[in-house]
Structure formats: C-alpha cells, structure tokens
Amino acid sequence: GAGVSQSPSNKVTEKGKDVELRCDPISGHTALYWYRQRLGQGLEFLIYFQGNSAPDKSGLPSDRFSAERTGESVSTLTIQRTQQEDSAVYLCASSLPGTQETQYFGPGTRLLVL
Amino acid sequence: TQLLEQSPQFLSIQEGENLTVYCNSSSVFSSLQWYRQEPGEGPVLLVTVVTGGEVKKLKRLTFQFGDARKDSSLHITAAQPGDTGLYLCAGAWGTYKYIFGTGTRLKVLA
C-alpha cells in the first residue's frame, strides 16, 4: 500500500510567518512521530501520538510549535512566528505501537525561513 | 540527556574497501536500530538489534549490539557505490521514544 506522505515537500517562508506541515501516515498505523533534522544532523524527536492517548509533546522546542492528529489519520505540525533557526527538514514517521516496530518515514518537508 | 555519538562523522572510501561505523552511548537501550537515509528521502530501517551481544547480518552488512546494550557497530564488507548515504543509529528509550545518533555520512567512490 501507500507509504507515509508529507506536504508540502518544500516550503520557503519569511521570518515571523506561520507554517503548517502535513503528514498522512500509513493506514492502520496508530503511532505517529514528528522529528526535526537540521542540515547534516541526526533526527531530533518533537512529538509522539499513539491512538487516542495524550500526545508526548516533550520534544517540542518552544511554544511556537504545536501539532494535532485527528484520530489515527492525518497529523499537522504548526510553527508560529517562524524564526531562521526553524529552518530544517521536518520528518514524519508512522508505525504500529512499540519500539521494536518499524518506523516508516515520509520524505520530509524542507522548510527554509528567510 | 541521552546522547548517541556516531563515529566517524564522514567517511569517503573506494569501492571494495571495508568499513566500520560506531554508535556509542553512556545509556542502556532496550533495542537499537540502524537506518540509511539518501538525499531527499526519509530514513529507511536496516535492522533492529535487541539482545546484548547480538550479531545480525544483512548481505554485506554486519550489525552488532554491545554486551551492555550501550553501543553498536555496523561493518560493511566490500563497499559499493550503492552503499552511499547517511547512516543513523537510534536507541529505543522507554516504550516508544527513540534517541537518534549524530549520523555517519558515507561516500563510496567507484
């Protein structure tokens, strides 16, 4: 079936503007992760959703970042009042629950804040 | 703060050479995963190791989990240009969280 999809693939915005990033997980995957990857770096955990449980938001770097997920489907990551340091690739992954399950990653959204 | 250090950060080798990438931490992980990421794409899982001392082989790739489950290595035999990419290790922390390593960028020259 279809993999994880993300949109937009690229986003250029001006400092201070809000942006919304979208993730469509694999159908049936109850777990969904958002990560940030700065240029040439590893992945930084942002937020985790599992079914209808309260999300783990412990990785969100500031209150300008928020995320929502409708049931076990689409998730959106919103960054308000973007700053230049927000420039990065934002990756979404979905999986069945549990850390021995395979995370399937989307291609990412490349965000550039001018 | 949990941290996974990978070494080397960059590696450029000739086709046919062997190489080893290391992933080290002071923390114990319940399992550890290795991913490869190509430009413009998300990481793709290569292997999950669970038991201390475990060794897994995937064609020319050999993965080992340290006895204390704090470190891991990835050995590639007879590297090929298709092995080029960013290699990431990720330690499982708790029931769902992963700590990702800093990455090793490998380039295999034909």
List keywords for this structure.
heterodimer; A: 114 residues; mainly beta; four-stranded antiparallel beta sheet; B: 110 residues; 0% helix; globular
**Tally of DSSP β-strands of chain A:** 10
- Average pLDDT metric of chain A: 93
Main structural class of chain A: mainly beta
How many strand units of chain B? 11
Uncertain runs of chain A: none
Strand content of chain B: over 45%
Query: What order do the SSEs of chain A take from the amino end to the carboxyl end, as H and E?
Result: EEEEEEEEEE
Overall body shape of chain B: globular
Number of continuous helical runs of chain B = 0
Helical residue percent band of chain A: under 10%
What does the average pLDDT of chain B come to?
93
Count helical runs of chain A. 0
What is the gist of this entry?
The complex is a heterodimer of chains A (114) and B (110). Chain A is built from no helices and 10 strands. Chain A has strands at 5-7, 10-13, 19-24, 31-37, 43-50, 65-69, 75-79, 88-95, 104-105, 109-113.
Task: Describe what this molecule looks like in 3D.
The complex is a heterodimer of chains A (114) and B (110). Chain A is 0% helix and 46% strand. Chain A is mainly β and 114 residues long. Chain B is mainly β and 110 residues long. Chain B has strands spanning 5-7, 10-14, 19-24, 32-37, 44-49, 55-58, 61-65, 71-76, 85-93, 97-100, 104-109. Chain B is globular. Chains A and B meet through strand 4 and strand 5 of A and strand 5, strand 9 and strand 10 of B.
